[in-house]
Queue: 3 jobs
Job 1
Amino acid sequence: MQMGVRMRTVILILVFIGMYASCAAQRVAIDGGFADWDSLAVLATDPAGDAGSSGVDFTALQVDDDAEWLYVSFDTGVPLLLQGTNDIQLALDTDANPATGTPMSGIGAELFWNFEDKYGGVVLGSISQVWQSDVRLIIAPSMTSTRFELALRRGTVIDGKPLFPSDSIRIHLSDGIGDRLPDAGGGVLYTFRSSGVMPVVERLIRTPEPGAIRLLTWNTLFNGLLDAPRQPAYTRILQALRPDIMCFQECFDVSETEVLAFIQTVFDPPAGRSWHALKGDAGNVLVTHLDVEDSWLLQSAYRESAYLLRTPADEQLLLLNCHFRCCSADDHRQKEADGVIRFLRDAKTPGGTVTVDEGTPIVLVGDLNLVGDYQQYTTLIHGDIVDNTVFGADEAPDWNGAPWTELEPRHPTSLFTFTWDDSESGYCPGKLDYMLYTASVMDITQDMVVDPREMSAGQRMGHGIELTDASTASDHLPRFADLRWKNINTVESTAPATWQVSSVYPQPAQGHITVDIAGGRPVALQFQLHDVLGRRIALPAVEARASSAEGSQRIALPELHPGMYFLQITDGTRIESRPLVIE
């Protein structure tokens, strides 16, 4: 009987894993990248070469969905800003009935959206004008592109009526009097899935790994740190994150002394450390307990500052805190991007104004406002300077000649990557805040776009965060990342240097677990247990042990509530984490 129960449990687990893997493979992320779409079938095609005077030439339409969202992707043939100047319109017959809604190209459109105008119309008996926040429209990328993706909330209700009442919809794209998809009337039919996609596993705010440094970037929306009504929201989020380095933007009328005084009331630095604050330009402020060895203003007319920091572990970091010009200021943003690469070339080359040791990790964070020409992003990532006469030769940002690595922003429970969200604006949520780093010499062990609206009630309660804290504090969401230095100077041994955890069993566990360690030279390991909120749970005494090529460690467990936990194993320089299910 016991064996039968175990066998059924194993079968159920395998079925669940198989379902999860299958569903996860179909989920798309609205992030401005399209590799996930490339694995999905094209719903409809349109002949190339039938563009109108604008040059817009639709050729492919893809559609996907889950229980909460409708996802649409299409190409335009020419680079453009989807929320800029164009005549593109999306029409949705949300009940697949041409007799209802507004007659349009053979469909009855309950929703039509004009991308340049940044508003749409909903026809559910009567006509209602709607904005992006009414239908929760999310678009990517925010820069010029020849391909776009968007999401619409399926649960949208307008005037008490559901926008998506049917299992099927019809879709029509048009470019004014130019190209259409499809060319024939009647739209493209799409039927929602009969079963939903598995939810995204919640990303949790955990205690940083040993040796990691937590970095925060946050646009504070016009001096928000000193705005008394918003200070409680800032306080709760900062206390939950407890970053080692804080890069703030839009501190226009706030001095570094005032920011420092506020942070000192929020939380204390680690024992034996003290907070420092610097403001080298017109709006960016750095607060950190790390030692500040030097600082620079990249260009006098712009908000671009750099700092050379040293950690308590005697590791250096070259950090750039930037706030590029907004909106239609493409020329200014290009100069700002060119200036960043010029500074990096100077810093990496002996002599000149700035010189750092070879292999020093370099990180750029801030509100880059990349809402115009894609070239600005290309300049930053690849070091492709546009004005070489003024800013000099191109320079690959990473030490190994590779591009900078962009840390994609990840929300707690969705695959959206927007960092700016203003329900009062006509513009859709977008990715404006960036983190770029030299991946050849640095790892990211944890990161998140902190949006309490996506957090579980348990995580918010565990960290003392309220549902509306981020949206109260600013129109930009805070981002954090835990940085860990790679030891690129370690002399290789003839024995493998890397140990690994091969298994943790039994699962589910009761009373004890066994951890199998494989590979590597003998090394002392420590074992820590955390709950899903990142809180450490005391384990019975476990001796630090020397791992040989093969070995096992039996660990007694305290009395624990059933659920998910995380076991961390560390040698003091790196850490491995494994999920642990308690029955």
Note: DSSP finds ten helices and 36 strands in the chain.
Job 2
Amino acid sequence: MPFPWLSASILFPIGAALLIPFVPDQGDGKQVRWYGLGVALTTFLITVAGYLNGYDPAVEGLQMVQRVEWLPRLGLAWSVGADGISMPLILLTSFITALAALAAWPVTFKPKLFYFLLLAMDGGQIAVFAVQDMLLFFLAWELELLPVYLLLAIWGGKKRQYAATKFILYTAGSSLFILVVGLAMAFYGGGTPTFEYTALMGKDFSTKFQLFAYAGLLIAFGVKLPIVPLHTWLPDAHGEATAPVHMLLAGILLKMGGYALLRFNVQLLPEGHAQFAPLLVVLGVVNIIYAALTSFAQRNLKRKIAYSSISHMGFVLIGIGSFSALGTSGAMLQMISHGLIGASLFFLVGATYDRTHTLQLDEMGGVGQKMRKMFALWTICSLASLALPGMSGFVSELMVFVGFVTSEAYTLSFRVVMAILAAVGVILTPVYLLSMLREIFFGKENVELASHSNLVDAEPREIYVISCLLVPIVGIGLYPRIMTDTYRASIEALVQRETLAMGRVIHTPGSNLIRQASLLQAPALPG
């Protein structure tokens, strides 16, 4: 029997978190932080070992499958597995969490509770990507909400209670749609209810049912992605979070929404997706332009980067709605790329706040001479965020653009208009990021800030964290196949399923942007 890598990556950090109360501690958290970092690193090594020993990128279906009957009368089983849609995100989750544990080194207030929540969140988020049962998915989705709420409410800024409450109301409220749709899908057609993805894929859902289910799930996952106008919790959460929580929110939490759209809305409800795909593209363009303009106007550093994240996630929506293997692959790569870049930027935001004790750009300026290493790190990460060629963001956004523009699922006029509008956001991104760098490190010097005793340059720990994130950012930018090959087979199979579903879609007045499926050819990924 092969080793249960996925189950171990889920249960190990959760089990280790339960042992934290017994870790010897002298009150300063030194022992606890080493324990937390060790557990997070071990979890990352477990996921890497699972990828190397149990995962074959050339196989499109589920791998490393483990199924144990849990509550058979309810149709609930412990069912885990990984394919190209989930395996890269499992690796990303364990990697970002390990770096977040290192970023949390300065935490001295209730360190045991902090690392308990961090490790519990690690297992819960891996479970979201690994489980293959919709009811189990709902439980994992809910499990990671409580740690985020407490991490915001206890260690956040002045308005932490407001931000945490808003987060839980938005995300927990939207989760009800997952439960309702999951139950409807499980009981559809009568017989013994089943929640497993493979069984749900085999059900012949009617088009009307798919539209109903798709709309409900789009709301649920749109909050997490987030999609404008369901996004307002994110700037508030980022505005009050600490650096390690920032990394988890930007690096992992938003990716759960994109993953769920691919797994449920596209894979399980392909005919519904054929009808809703144009809406996804439009919403993606709205995300890009609205969030970019809003980010440009922000004077709070955390909120500026938060709106930048919302803008970049718009490319994920366009890629998912592109009906092309290249565009969908770009959406997948954009999630991974933004996870790395977003985590690096928010870590730097936290490091900068620790020195300046302000988030207002108007109160910063003239610190570039005293923090040269910090300026270099900020510059590199900002260039990655604005999609500089040679970095992962450039490749992913280019794949989405080319995949959508060359897709034959839409009329030429629709493709041209959407591409031009999305390009506006691409142009705005370097403007607000480079102006942000100028205001932080140059501009008019704040004499009081420049004389602050805490205004020291980047420490070795901070340089190490950013270096760990920059290695894959640059590596993917220079050789994208190192990542795209891990999910190529699964994405091509997914797009083929979309294509077949398109043939069953009957034209209605609301779907006139989509051509007949006989004209749609799903292009293979390059290389």
Note: The radius of gyration is 22 Å.
Job 3
Amino acid sequence: MILIQGKGVSKGVTKGKLYFFQRPDTNIEKKPATDLEAEKARLADAQAKSMDQLTALAEKCREEAGDESAVLFETHAMFVEDDDYVESIMDTLEEEQCNVEYAVKLAGEQFAAMFAAMDDAYMQARAADIKDVTQRILNNLMGIAEGGIDSDEPVILAADDLAPSETLQLDKSKILGFVTMGGSGNSHTAILARTMGIPAICGAGEALKETYQGRIAYIDGETGSLILDPDDLTLAALKDKHEKQQEMKRLLETMKGQEDITLDGRKMMLYCNIGSPEDVDAVITNDGQGIGLFRSEFLYLAASDYPTEDEQFEAYKKVAAAMNGKRVVIRTLDIGADKQVAYFDMKKEENPAMGVRAIRICLNRPEVFRTQLRALYRASAYGKVAIMFPMITSVWEVRECKRACQKVMAELEAEGIPYNKDTEIGIMIETPSSVFVADALAKEVDFFSVGTNDLTQYTLACDRQANDLGKFFDPHHPAVLRALKMATDAAHAAGIWIGICGELGADISLLPTFLAIGIDELSVSPTSVLPLRAEIRKSIAKTCTLEKLEC
């Protein structure tokens, strides 16, 4: 038996083949071609595969979001067979007598540069399309699977770690669980696993070897164990745990349709965190009563250039309409720190978690902010949208954000575009400074939502991404819980509601503390809704205490 011990970051037991995540090789070198006709045949095959993929993607988008969303992939398909683009590739092959990968890469770079240099904004935007098409053809030439997984059956996905942009491209239907060498409980891989409701382990270290590729393995997301070739006793224990978990799932199904209310009548809103419109199905399946955090930055991470107003509008509208009148809190762009986007061309920072990130980027780049706000307000006409600003530290930042909102509303009014004038505005409480001035901030907004991951990081001076800080990164620390209480008192004194959208919200052991503090809403991964509801419905709020706030 081989036991690899990591840290469990998403509960559950699963069995499957280990599959190591494939990354595209961006270091393409020029090599002499021994058979030029064979290289041309490889190009034709890669073009055909690319066309099939793009046709399928266009059809899927047309079914799910309408004709407008399918246009992007149809445009990409046109580029695959564009005469000038293909001729450029062929000319390089003939003149340089080289490998087709180099010829495709060179043509892509030349055409992208040509479009980027044009005066017309529409044509400039086509540079990103050329880059995407070129990468797709290269992936097919090099055997890099669409969605990162070249397997006919679902697998346990292994990796050193996965960047936010990489988690977006995954074919989630083929993933049974995750195991990573690095990462932490706050990594995007862990968050994705909890959203999907599948087991995950991080911090497995170098014991996770690529030589295990294809081996049958078991994940226990509760204990953080990855097991290959389990002995009979271990196998029996894993099967027993899996059966108990399935029985618990069946029992939790009875919670659907029930109120989120304690035995003594205290109501709590149970909302969900999502990263894309596709996650809404999980919210509905798990009976979430709203969306407390839509991480809009994933629209930017998934793109190769700034997403347009219409692209964003379609995504926000889709979520708002699908939730059918339930509140959808959409957080404005929150990149920087661990979420880097190449086309933003951000300067390298020694300490990016303390640098230009989130609302600081938006206020420094008003056109980027304006584009997103226009899309958000347009979507507000199709559901109960609320807008939330991250990384707030001062009252002046909130006022600047509100001024930007007023300008956008005035524009839409003048253009005759419908929007909801009463769209709620909220902020994230995730810095000590926002806690200390919460009384003033509460007078400016309609709600607070506490990002406990960052609040813990900044309060305890512990990097949330570091896996080796162990007991030093303690979200249960009295300082964190006291900050939560201070923010809650300030919110309620101003007559606004307050929620938690960080991972701590799903911690059932802290539910009595949240009830005692007076938290109004918990926004968690969709699979955490029913377990929390079951716990809420057997709690008595008036008996809950603040003992965990004591040192």
Note: The chain has three domains: 2-21+150-251, 36-142, 256-549.
